[in-house]
Amino acid sequence: MAYFSKAIDTILRGAGAKAGVEIWCIENLQLVPVPRSSHGKFFSGSSYIILNTVLLKSGSPEHDIHYWLGKDAKEVDSALASDKALELDEALGSHTVQYREVQGQETEKFLSYFKPCIIPIEGVFSSGPGHVNTETYQVTLLTCKGDRAVHVKEVPFTRTSLNHNDVFILDTASKIFLFSGCNSTIQERAKALEVVEYIKENKHGGKCEIAAIDDGKFVGDPDVGEFWSLFGGYAPIPRDLASAGPEQPDISTVKLFWITTQGKLCQIETDNLSKEMLNSNKCYMLDCGAELFIWMGSSTSITERKTAISAVEDFVRSQGRSVGTHITFLTEGSETALFRSYFDRWPQKVEPKLYEEGRGKVAAIFKQSGYDVKELPEEDCPPCIDCSGTLKVWRVNADEVSLIPVAEQMKFYSGDCYILQYTYAGLEREENLFYAWLGCRSALEDKADAISHMDAIVHSTKGNPSVAQIVEGREPEQFFSITQKLIIFKGGMSIRYKRSTAEKGIPDETFDGTKTALFRVQGKSLNNMQAIQVDQVSSSLNSSYCYILKTQTSLFTWAGNLSSARDQDLVDRMLDLINPTWQPILVREGSEPELLWNALGGKGEYPREKEITRFTEDPHLFTCVSTEGDFKVKEIFNFSQDDLTTEDVLVLDCHSEIYVWIGRHSNIGSKQEAFTIGLKFLETDILIEGLSLETPIYVVTEAYEPPLFTRFFDWDSSKANMIGNSFERKLAILHGRAKKMEAPLGGSWKAYSMETTPNSYKSRSVGPNGVASRSISPASSVLGSRLKSSDNHRFSSPPPIPGKLFGGSSPDLGDTANGSHAPSINTSPQVHESQDGPNLNIYPYERLKVVSSDPVTGIDATRRETYLSDEEFQDVFKMTRSAFYQLPKWRRNKLKMSLNLF
């Protein structure tokens, strides 16, 4: 949280309270704010401080401080900017990351705040009234380097400044020329066009001509002749000579130095770096060659930190390092991923995780501290796509795939792999989304075949569907929203699974309805619920969940003390789907009968603490280049849709899932190749965030991005549908021809094969209540399945899944099974006939409650309400007994729980 001491400049008060960029400049040895209208205008004779504040999805603010030093800035101003950056860090709680930026050598993170570029202005900043740049307009030649963040530099307006490798902009009073060296990349040319547009709008008021000149192409174009005439006529550009400038020293090893309070650097001799080497009372320098890090212990003072910074700057000068050497300043606890990557055994960074009931309190704390926090994000997010479409499921069995009947398609086995094709209504066309679901106990060969089979099906499907590879136990929420009601059994039906268990001598755990089984019930809503078979041992229980336990004689539902009413509703609905005629024994945690513990092999320890919800991580976008034996990853900061360059392969890292985006003009030939890139990215774990190789991987193709992907951008569908390479697209936009570059919808779809996907798709059906519902899978017509009309209803009256989850006859519940009455132990003369069974003794409500000072014994604890008299029943439940029993069972149980009768 922000705080201020006497040592901190009062002009910094309130800094970082809102998201966005704030800028200050050193003027007359004072820190003065730069108005927002002047953001992005930097004078080469001045020094600046830039603060960027981002409000993370977790609700906490993240701050980055940069101090920018113009090439002509006074040394005293540069030193003061460094000191003021430290003061700002302290004002923000010493949790920022600070960067030293030198004109012409800025970091890409800094440049990302001022897209498309910054073009430094000669002179010195002035905050006085009426300050206007009085420079007369003059012809300038600029060079543009970089295919993401563009470094723009003014060079002498002479022919010798031109070369074959770079892109140049010649800015004249009436026309802007873009000259592209023959060795420059398409991406560099496209980015330079963004700079051209920036100059046109900011220096020409949007009114000037634009001409693109290709190096080495001499056509009868008047623009080409006009361009060369400005240089005194055409002459060949000489071949580029080897750079004669000083090179950065080649440092093969990373070195760690301790910085004394007197500013002396003492190298720490070690072969392996570990966090334990860093003392909170000291400052250190990590020398990585092209970049230096200064690590400042949390217990160090501002004076010690200023001394450390001066010592490092002296080190750079004495070693002959480039003045543009990047220096990053880190306070203990705010280490960047790049810094942590140089250390072995760096503890995994733990992000703050909040309980649901604490969200309001945390938001209030941030507001009280001056942060503009409206509310913290909700745990449950609505589905990103329409979840009432058509679903088809195939089971993978070695070299074959078999279409599963609709009645069975929501029953998965951990030893098998499945392919799911989900067809839904998009904004402008019918869309397809494919999943390869890999069971955690499935054979490696089946997993590989699942990806291969899915790729074959996708190739025969119209359009360019998005595909995903997911592993059991790591399913994304969207998958569960599509499957809606999913049951995952142990065992498998695959030949390879059966063969593997036989070869290893492992018992086949495949559920057949007769074995004892324990299911954990989970989910977000009635449209998103799962029953997952777990080991039938007490350690599988968790106080945060509800469970269903089936034995050969009984059926139990177990409610953990930390489970919610919603969790208990899901159990009731799962039981209704399995077999609504069975009467389970309802058990609360702490009141389990011996029969339950015996079925689980005896009572034992299990997790009893509340499972804490992890916030959705803020996404990061990366470019990925994969060549033989080399895989390079580079982050794109402050990304937008415009960063999705058609020649590239990008990865959007959302921590819980990643998206591999494939540009139309990239060199990726198949979805399988894209999955390989996704796995390489997970292995690299560039942010040191502990990514698992089982993280879900989506593959998304340009122009066919689903809402799952576009939700992370301010999306413009017209941009996504343009043809041509990135340079041609930008040039068309500049010349007002963007509309002509749009591809017709569906124009590039592949031929639709009826062999692999043999059924015509059906649109969303509409139920009797007028609400759109999931259509019956077209697969049913192929397999000759006959489905009743009730299968079209979604959840208003859920039909049971054909084929019982717990096969065989109804379980024996003792004296209470099948609605038979409990034995009458009390000799009270009053009896009552309920709809659940006749002749039950009547007891007062106060004795029937779960928590009672004088509890009744010997009753059926799952039907406490049946022991109430009719009069007291209506008084307690505010309805008649017959009205109560007309309610769905899950509603009855919820009502009983609210009255302490369950």
From TrEMBL:
<feature type="region of interest" description="Disordered">
    <location>
        <begin position="782"/>
        <end position="839"/>
    </location>
</feature>
<protein>
    <recommendedName>
        <fullName>HP domain-containing protein</fullName>
    </recommendedName>
</protein>
<dbReference type="GO" id="GO:0051015">
    <property type="term" value="F:actin filament binding"/>
</dbReference>
<dbReference type="GO" id="GO:0007015">
    <property type="term" value="P:actin filament organization"/>
</dbReference>
<keyword id="KW-0677">Repeat</keyword>
<dbReference type="InterPro" id="IPR036886">
    <property type="entry name" value="Villin_headpiece_dom_sf"/>
</dbReference>
<feature type="domain" description="HP">
    <location>
        <begin position="837"/>
        <end position="902"/>
    </location>
</feature>
<dbReference type="GO" id="GO:0051693">
    <property type="term" value="P:actin filament capping"/>
</dbReference>
<dbReference type="InterPro" id="IPR003128">
    <property type="entry name" value="Villin_headpiece"/>
</dbReference>
<keyword id="KW-0117">Actin capping</keyword>
<dbReference type="InterPro" id="IPR029006">
    <property type="entry name" value="ADF-H/Gelsolin-like_dom_sf"/>
</dbReference>
<dbReference type="Pfam" id="PF02209">
    <property type="entry name" value="VHP"/>
</dbReference>
<dbReference type="InterPro" id="IPR007122">
    <property type="entry name" value="Villin/Gelsolin"/>
</dbReference>
<feature type="compositionally biased region" description="Polar residues">
    <location>
        <begin position="817"/>
        <end position="838"/>
    </location>
</feature>
<dbReference type="InterPro" id="IPR007123">
    <property type="entry name" value="Gelsolin-like_dom"/>
</dbReference>
<dbReference type="Pfam" id="PF00626">
    <property type="entry name" value="Gelsolin"/>
</dbReference>
